[in-house]
Structure formats: C-alpha cells, structure tokens
C-alpha cells in the first residue's frame, strides 16, 4: 500500500542544486487498512514524509511506492490520477473562502466530472456525518475552527481515497474539537481507508491504537 525503501530526500537549494539531506535511509511498509502515526520533534521530517506520501515530491534516493505505483517509474502525466486516490488534510485548513461548505466538499467531485445527482447525495451524507447538516450555506469564515477542519476531512474523503494523509490535523483545535476530528479519521480507518497522521504530540497516539513511526533528524528512530 505504502512502501518506503531506503528513502533519502534533499530539497534543492536556491541554485537548484541538492541541499542537505532531510530524510535518510527510511524504510517501512504500511499495510492496506492500517492506521499509522508519524511522530517526531519539529524539523524531524514528518511533513516531508507526508509530501512523499501524497506524490507531491519524489525521493532523491531510494523508492516510494504508493498504491502499487513506484514513484520512480510513474510518468509526470500519471501523477494527477495517483494523487486523486490520496486524500490530504492540512494543518492550515486551505478551504476555498469564497465557496460555502457544500461547494467546498462538492468541488473534488465536480472536478472529477461526477454527475450532479450523485454529488447531491454524497455531499449531503458527508455533511451529516461531520455534523454540519444545516450549515451547508455557510462560508468557511462563518464556521468554527473545528467545523472547518471537519469540512477539510469531508473534502479529503468525498472521492473515497484509498489513502488518507493528515498533517497535524488537530494542532489548531481545542481538545474537544481535536478529539472529534480524530474520531472521524479513526472511523474512516474502520471503514477500510489506510490513514497516516503526523503529529508532534505524543499524547494523542498514546491514547489511540495505531503504529507509531518516530523520526528524528530525518531518520526512523522507533517503530512500534
Ligand atoms: N521546501 C523546503 N526546502 C528546503 N528545506 C525544507 C523544505 N521543507 C522542509 N525543509 C527542511 O526539511 C527538514 C524537515 O522539515 P519537515 O517540515 O519535514 O519537518 P517536520 O517534522 O514536519 O517539522 P514541523 O513539526 O516543524 O512541521 C527541516 O530541516 C526543514 O527546514
């Protein structure tokens, strides 16, 4: 499902030459339907690992295989189709501010050319699931932080991705809203989606099941 084999990553410097390695010799496999935490202090490389898992970057060394596709062999024009099978939840919500809640969730389906009748049913179900039924017409600024983050999750899962990747999804939220957001990710996982969540909080993973991959200085230092 997700396989990293001896992965190294160096971002290019301002002249386009490889900068220092920020990920080193990372190897692990995440099975289909698994739930994994990526832990580590600031700068450990969590976001970089997640970017590789979104096919937003290619590794400088080694191989990343996503949903059966090795990135080294994927052609540039194949990447958008691969990315559509991967849902992404960012820490900063990145909702479209001029669209209401309904249209934010419907957007990925519209871009994929899905029929409006299907979109109506799917979006209504999802907004109900995240507890936003009745708030469809509100724009993001008219929703609480927790509601916005749940909307981001609805938008990320509306296309039924096989893999859901979330970067610090609860760090901007109060504890109650954070728990509610996490409950949605756990429920997606129970329904079969492979879920990966990066966090610098050790508290969350200790209270919930799931594998913990701990990074430090771009290396894997614990797997349990
Ligand atoms: N676009 C970039 N260009 C150059 N270096 C980068 C870039 N993005 C991240 N880095 C560097 O890569 C290293 C790992 O960063 P990354 O954001 O992956 O860590 P992180 O564990 O997610 O940190 P945080 O918890 O603070 O978000 C850091 O040294 C960072 O400065």
Automatic annotation (TrEMBL):
Residues 2-224 form the ABC transporter domain. One of its GO terms (molecular function) is ATP binding. Keywords: ATP-binding, Nucleotide-binding. This is ATP-binding cassette domain-containing protein. It comes from Roseomonas alba.
């Amino acid at each position: 499902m997700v396989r990293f084999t001896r992965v190294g990553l160096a971002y290019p410097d301002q002249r386009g030459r490889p900068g220092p390695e920020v990920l080193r010799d990372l190897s692990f496999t995440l099975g289909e339907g698994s739930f994994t935490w990526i832990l580590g202090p600031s700068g450990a490389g969590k976001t970089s690992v997640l970017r590789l898992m979104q096919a937003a970057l290619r590794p400088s060394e080694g191989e990343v295989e996503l949903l059966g596709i090795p990135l080294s062999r994927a052609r540039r024009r194949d990447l958008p189709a691969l990315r559509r099978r991967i849902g992404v939840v960012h820490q900063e919500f990145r909702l479209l501010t001029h669209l209401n809640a309904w249209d934010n969730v419907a957007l990925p389906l519209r871009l994929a050319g899905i029929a409006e009748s299907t979109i109506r049913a799917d979006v209504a179900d999802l907004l109900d699931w995240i507890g936003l039924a009745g708030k469809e017409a509100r724009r993001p600024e008219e929703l609480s932080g927790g509601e916005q983050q749940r909307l981001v999750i609805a938008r990320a899962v509306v296309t039924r991705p096989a893999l859901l990747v979330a970067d610090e999804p609860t760090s901007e939220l109060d504890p109650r809203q954070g728990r509610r957001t996490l409950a949605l990710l756990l429920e997606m996982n129970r329904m079969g989606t492979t879920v990966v969540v990066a966090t610098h909080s050790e508290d969350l993973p200790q209270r919930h099941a799931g594998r913990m991959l701990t990074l430090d200085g771009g290396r894997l230092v614990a797997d349990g």
